[in-house]
Design a protein that fits this description.
single chain; alpha+beta; three-stranded antiparallel beta sheet; elongated
Amino acid sequence: MDCPIHKTNMPFTDTRFGKRFACSQCDMVSWNGNSPASQKTREARIGAHRAFDAIWKAGCMGRTAAYSALATYMGKSKKRTHIAQFSNDECQRVIEFTKELLNG
Protein backbone atom coordinates (compact mmCIF):
# COMPACT_ATOMS: atom_id res chain seq x y z
CA MET A 1 0.00 0.00 0.00
CA ASP A 2 1.29 3.46 -0.92
CA CYS A 3 0.90 6.75 0.92
CA PRO A 4 -1.51 8.92 -1.08
CA ILE A 5 0.58 12.02 -0.30
CA HIS A 6 4.16 10.82 -0.78
CA LYS A 7 3.48 7.92 -3.19
CA THR A 8 5.89 5.78 -1.18
CA ASN A 9 5.36 2.32 0.20
CA MET A 10 3.74 2.19 3.63
CA PRO A 11 5.30 -0.76 5.47
CA PHE A 12 3.02 -2.72 7.79
CA THR A 13 3.25 -4.10 11.28
CA ASP A 14 1.16 -7.01 12.51
CA THR A 15 -0.74 -6.00 15.64
CA ARG A 16 -3.43 -7.67 17.71
CA PHE A 17 -5.93 -5.53 15.77
CA GLY A 18 -4.60 -6.59 12.35
CA LYS A 19 -2.16 -5.08 9.90
CA ARG A 20 -1.21 -1.43 10.48
CA PHE A 21 0.30 0.33 7.46
CA ALA A 22 2.04 3.63 8.25
CA CYS A 23 3.87 6.25 6.20
CA SER A 24 7.28 7.10 7.59
CA GLN A 25 7.01 10.69 6.28
CA CYS A 26 3.58 11.79 7.58
CA ASP A 27 0.69 10.69 9.81
CA MET A 28 -1.08 8.56 7.18
CA VAL A 29 -2.12 5.19 8.58
CA SER A 30 -4.24 2.35 7.27
CA TRP A 31 -5.64 -0.55 9.23
CA ASN A 32 -6.20 -3.88 7.49
CA GLY A 33 -5.98 -2.38 4.01
CA ASN A 34 -8.67 0.30 4.45
CA SER A 35 -8.02 3.61 2.73
CA PRO A 36 -5.14 5.51 4.35
CA ALA A 37 -6.16 8.37 6.61
CA SER A 38 -4.59 11.23 8.50
CA GLN A 39 -5.15 11.65 12.23
CA LYS A 40 -7.94 14.15 11.50
CA THR A 41 -9.73 11.68 9.21
CA ARG A 42 -9.27 8.80 11.66
CA GLU A 43 -10.87 10.93 14.38
CA ALA A 44 -13.73 11.85 12.02
CA ARG A 45 -14.31 8.15 11.26
CA ILE A 46 -14.37 7.29 14.95
CA GLY A 47 -16.91 10.06 15.59
CA ALA A 48 -19.04 8.96 12.65
CA HIS A 49 -19.05 5.35 13.84
CA ARG A 50 -19.89 6.40 17.38
CA ALA A 51 -22.86 8.43 16.13
CA PHE A 52 -24.02 5.85 13.59
CA ASP A 53 -23.78 2.87 15.94
CA ALA A 54 -26.28 4.61 18.24
CA ILE A 55 -28.97 3.91 15.60
CA TRP A 56 -28.85 0.15 15.88
CA LYS A 57 -27.69 0.00 19.50
CA ALA A 58 -30.75 2.02 20.53
CA GLY A 59 -32.97 -0.39 18.62
CA CYS A 60 -34.12 2.31 16.19
CA MET A 61 -33.48 -0.18 13.37
CA GLY A 62 -31.31 -3.21 12.81
CA ARG A 63 -27.69 -2.82 11.81
CA THR A 64 -28.22 -4.09 8.26
CA ALA A 65 -31.22 -1.81 7.75
CA ALA A 66 -29.25 1.13 9.16
CA TYR A 67 -26.42 0.56 6.68
CA SER A 68 -28.93 0.24 3.82
CA ALA A 69 -30.54 3.54 4.83
CA LEU A 70 -27.11 5.19 5.12
CA ALA A 71 -26.14 3.92 1.65
CA THR A 72 -29.27 5.50 0.20
CA TYR A 73 -28.66 8.78 2.06
CA MET A 74 -25.03 8.88 0.90
CA GLY A 75 -25.91 7.94 -2.69
CA LYS A 76 -23.59 4.94 -2.53
CA SER A 77 -24.01 1.25 -3.09
CA LYS A 78 -24.19 -0.89 0.05
CA LYS A 79 -20.85 -2.38 -0.97
CA ARG A 80 -19.20 1.07 -0.89
CA THR A 81 -20.81 2.20 2.36
CA HIS A 82 -18.00 1.63 4.86
CA ILE A 83 -17.21 4.39 7.34
CA ALA A 84 -13.62 3.11 7.49
CA GLN A 85 -13.21 4.35 3.91
CA PHE A 86 -15.03 7.68 4.21
CA SER A 87 -13.51 11.15 3.92
CA ASN A 88 -13.93 13.86 6.56
CA ASP A 89 -16.88 15.33 4.65
CA GLU A 90 -18.55 11.94 4.32
CA CYS A 91 -18.11 11.35 8.04
CA GLN A 92 -19.88 14.65 8.73
CA ARG A 93 -22.75 13.49 6.51
CA VAL A 94 -22.99 10.27 8.56
CA ILE A 95 -23.37 12.35 11.72
CA GLU A 96 -26.03 14.52 10.05
CA PHE A 97 -27.88 11.40 8.86
CA THR A 98 -27.82 9.98 12.37
CA LYS A 99 -29.12 13.20 13.93
CA GLU A 100 -31.95 13.42 11.37
CA LEU A 101 -32.92 9.80 11.97
CA LEU A 102 -32.78 9.86 15.76
CA ASN A 103 -34.18 13.37 16.27
CA GLY A 104 -36.49 13.56 13.54
